[in-house]
Amino acid sequence: MKKRTLALLMAGAMTASVFTGCSKQATPDPTTAATTEAAKDSEAATTEAPKTEAPTEEAKKVALNVSTTFAGEDGNAGNYQDAIKAWQAETGNTVNDSSAVSDETVKARITSDFQMGSEPDVLFYFSGADANSFIEAGKVMSIDDIRKEYPDYASNMNDDLIAPSLVDNKKYAVPVNGFWEAMFVNTEVLEAAGVDMPGADYTWEQFLADCEKIKEAGYSPIAAALGNIPHYWWEFGIFNHGTPENHCTIPESVEDERGQAWVAGINDVKDLYERGYFPKNTLSATDDDTFLMFVEGKAAFLIDGSWKVGGIAGACQSDPNDAATLDADKLNNFSVTYVPGMNDRKATDLVGGLSMGYYITKKAWDDPDKREAAVNFVEYMTSDEVVPVFAQHTASALKAAPKVDESKFNSLQVKAMEMMSGVTSLTPAVQDIFNGECRTSTFDGMPQIVTGKVATEDAVKEGLEIYHAN
Asked: Which of 19, 176, 241, 358 has its CA 20 to 30 A from that of 396?
């Protein structure tokens, strides 16, 4: 979308809809010369007297029934209400809002509403298994079907980042925000070690070379507590031996191709430990301990989630609970970039997700008065201007990094937005599927693995056997 104010876009759209009904001017027929001559005689009178035209019918104002999870203590509840007010003011339409905090009760209500035919016109909801029932029933419109009439619908989104339905692999929900996992960087440490800031094409080989320089300069290359939170290195170690397409495929056994990929990925973590790239106390330290090393300039790299942006900013405040006490100069020493890639995984392929989005129901689509309003509402809520208000530094599917008022965000949030604009894929965390007791042998057992007390293959085998036994 070209950078214009939404008000102008809305006004232009409404003006276009008003005048699309104007007819073409007819070509005179030479056989009607007499009639034409009579018309000439009355021309003066016509030009002198003001012409009276039938009033153009204005677009009918509608009330959309909308349900979202932006309610209660959700951080975007206020942003959502503000966006509704702005859309209503610009279009003259109204919203009957039935938003509620996401829980099992709300999920049951949504399911029941679709079954009873009382579903909303627009729904902000999950894009995974929770949507299966109403997608199977044909109760919502796919993005491709909407684009047959509205070609620019969600055109500002990177389709590769929109989650497909588990039912038919089609895409239905236009996303707003999600989460990501990436690599935070203490740039002061990099400068002291003579290491450049990693970019979008960062490889594992380059990462190893940089870690060696950082170690030789007297710093810990990686801030991680392998005896407490090995999760992120476990995840990306495995991801580096797979692809976004197969990362969430649980191996059938340790002997198969995916099983051996898991072994290789965890062995890469072991290699980092043997090279001395983790803190000396990595097996006994807590995650809080190693995070403190990172923010105090004793370690260079930290893999964590988008939620850590706030944690780093808080560590740069004299009062962690008061953003007004932020030391902006200190925060400027931190950045965020991509996790080094290997094999078929590019560095810009991150773990993350956009698990919710806006649906337009078939009920609204089949209503001639509501169809355009529903499309307009979703386009507004997922526009380049509105999405950043909701997503801020988290994940979004926008094609381009939005222009933001940097005065409203801290420097690390702005860097996170810029980083996210270069992401090529977001893949769910396989550890969220491979959870519970089956992770114990490789999560809790990481100290034994990296020190060689337990063979990686045996630890992976144990976890897979537990997983498949359940």
From this structure: 241
Return the minimum-mean-pLDDT range out of 201-210, 218-227, 344-353, 425-434.
425-434
Placement of tokens 């057992």 in the chain: 445
Tokens of 412: 């690390």
CA gap 228, 278 in Å, rounded:
13
DSSP code per residue over 93-153: -EEEE-----SHHHHHHHHHHHHHT---SEEEEESSGGGHHHHHTT-B--HHHHHTT-TTT
Do residues 301 and 223 touch, judged by C-beta distance below 8 A?
yes
Residue intervals of the chain classified under CATH 3.40.190.10 are: 63-178+354-399, 179-351+427-469
Q: Do 327 and 319 form a contact (C-beta atoms < 8 A)?
A: no
Rounded average pLDDT over 245-251 = 95
pLDDT score, position 395? 86
Helices 371-381 & 77-91, crossing angle to 10 degrees?
130
Model pTM score: 0.74
| Pairing state between β 334-337 and 425-427 | unpaired
CB-neighbour burial class of residue 51 (10 A; exposed 0-12, middle 13-18, buried 19+): exposed
HSE, CB side, 13 Å, CA atoms: give it for residue 121: 24
CATH architecture of 179-351+427-469: 3-Layer(aba) Sandwich (3.40)
Cβ atoms of 429 and 182 within 8 Å: the answer is no
Confidence of residue 13 (pLDDT cuts 50, 70, 90): very low
- Residues constituting the chain: 470
Identify the sign of the CA torsion 237, 241, 242, 248: negative
Identify the pLDDT of residue 72: 85
- CB atoms under 10 Å from CB of 360, counted, come to 27
Q: Which of 64-68, 74-78, 283-287, 334-338 has the lowest mean pLDDT?
A: 74-78
Give the least confident one: 169-173, 284-288, 317-321, 373-377.
Answer: 317-321
